[in-house]
UniProtKB/TrEMBL annotation:
Domain Histone deacetylase: 21-316
Record key words, sorted: Acetoin catabolism
Coiled-coil ranges (or none): none
Name of the protein in its database record: Acetoin utilization protein AcuC
Organism for this UniProt entry: Aeribacillus composti
Family, as annotated: Belongs to the histone deacetylase family.
Pfam families cross-referenced by the UniProt entry: Hist_deacetyl
CDD domains, A to Z: HDAC_AcuC_like
Pathway: Ketone degradation; acetoin degradation
């Protein structure tokens, strides 16, 4: 069994809305090249993804919606019909062969699932995935098909496993949450910027599941301008408590890199330091509860030059126990190759500039609000644990 596999294809670049759209899969290529220049990713660790079948897509998505995506990518869907499916909007414009590009993203995450669940590897990483806003019959927030939701449903049906989904994107993982809102074998935890001023506007601490899924959805919405210390306190305490409560068979982590201060679409003030800690704890949880079974996907991240390659490389380095490589200067060859193509000055080190930003005047108030939100979530977890213990008696 391999320790870790890296799911990748240059065809990920075909998932492209336009040259000016903020979602740009070049960030995956940048990350792959950084890891190779670091000599941390070998060719025999890279696995070619497959395309998801229509039957697999229908684990989550309506057949009518899949037909609409196909027709849109062939220029055969009217504007009115497209808008009914969330296609042709500013967020998710129509592009040629969008079904093929999107089904490859889903197939890549399914490839990761099979490697882990069939014990070909302990861990698997698909940075092309993490499209967590896709709904059953509608595209949303740059996401056409929801690869994480399809993968989780696939795990339940094919492998009969209990899945803990941890989403650290700055935007609420709404599409995954609602897909399993009444499912007791899936526990979703999303730590994100509050939806008061940020898409999609959901993910309050009181969204806790329904029916047999009540008590298996958790949200920690953070105040705008949250910094590292508060972010990490919430992450470490919430993930630890939820994992102990749910005791999963496998974890799926969505690793949006858009909580960073440089990200142009969000208002959080995290640094690269949180991206060192996120995979570290995920790795520990996977080995503590799941015999190492850990599937990681990408997600948001719109400063593709200064943030995403460094942040996403740290996931793979953690999987390979090579975090020590992420110190000091980035490989000179990588910087020289990409600087002329970048519209901004690349950061030449693994560490962020110091200082990264001016001090936040509301720091104490923000931390108090975040602590209150965290405590509400933790109280609910403890209440559920006590309730479940009494039921067993």
């Amino acid at each position: 069994m391999k320790d870790s596999v890296f799911i990748y294809s240059p065809l990920f670049l075909n998932y492209k809305f336009s040259n000016k759209h903020p979602f740009n899969q070049l960030r995956v290529e940048l990350t792959v090249d950084l890891l190779k220049k670091l000599k941390a990713l070998e060719d025999d660790e890279i696995v070619e993804p497959r395309f998801a079948t229509d039957e697999e897509l229908e684990l989550i998505h309506d057949a009518g919606y899949i037909r609409a995506v196909k027709q849109a990518g062939e220029g055969k869907l009217s504007e009115h019909e497209a808008l009914n499916y969330g296609l042709g909007t500013e967020d998710t414009p129509i592009f040629q062969n969008m079904h093929q590009a999107s089904s490859l993203i889903v197939g890549a995450t399914l490839t990761a699932v099979d490697h882990v669940m069939m014990e070909k590897s302990k861990h698997a990483l698909n940075l092309g995935g993490g499209l967590h806003h896709g709904f059953r019959g509608k595209a949303s927030g740059f996401c056409i098909y929801n690869d994480s939701a399809v993968a989780i449903k696939y795990i339940i049906e094919k492998y009969g496993a209990r899945v803990l989904y941890i989403d650290t994107d700055a935007h609420h993982g709404d599409g995954v949450q609602w897909s399993f809102y009444d499912e007791p074998n899936v526990c979703t935890l999303s730590i994100h910027e509050t939806g008061r001023y940020l898409f999609p506007g959901t993910g309050t601490v009181h969204e806790r599941g329904q029916g047999s899924g009540y008590g298996f959805a958790f949200n920690i919405p953070l105040d705008a301008f949250t910094e590292d210390e508060s972010w990490l306190k919430v992450y470490k305490e919430a993930v630890t408590e939820v994992a102990e409560y749910f005791k999963p068979d496998v974890i799926v982590t969505q690793n949006g890199a858009d909580a960073h201060y440089f990200d142009p679409l969000t208002h959080l003030h995290a640094s690269i330091n949180i991206y060192r800690e996120i995979p570290k704890l995920a790795h520990e949880i996977a080995h503590s509860y799941c015999d190492g079974k850990w599937i990681a996907v990408g997600g948001g991240g719109y400063d593709i030059w200064r943030v995403v390659p460094r942040a996403w490389s740290l996931i793979w380095l953690e999987m390979k126990n090579l975090s020590c490589k992420a110190q000091g200067a980035l490989p000179k060859e990588w910087l020289e190759k990409w600087q002329d193509k970048s519209p901004v000055e690349l950061i030449p080190t693994w560490e962020d500039p110091d200082p990264l930003y001016q001090p936040i005047p509301r720091k104490k108030e923000i931390e108090e609000k975040n602590n209150h939100t965290l405590e509400l979530a933790l109280q609910f977890i403890r209440q559920q644990r006590e309730y479940n213990a009494k039921k067993k008696c």
